[in-house]
Amino acid sequence: MMNALKHVEYLVESGFTQQQSKGSVYTTVEIMNENLASKEDLKNVVHNMNTEFLVVRSEFSKGFSDVRLEMKEMENRITYKLSGIVVIALGLFKGLEEFF
Q: Is the pTM of this model over 0.70?
């Protein structure tokens, strides 16, 4: 993350003692290691997100195919009902035609 030796040298040149410089750099490195994400951490997050997105996409795709199947079944039921209505209507017209 950072070049600790370079920072120790910079602090010594700026007037800090060797001990103060090392302590300051050590503390900074510890804080950074505990609180900042490393490149490996970010790669793991990206990998996990991509895996989760694949699962979600798969679930959506399955859900949509279920919806499509239900819509096709509904379309078939409507077609059958409309066909029945047309047959009944034609029968009524035929019956009325004979009546008049």
A: no
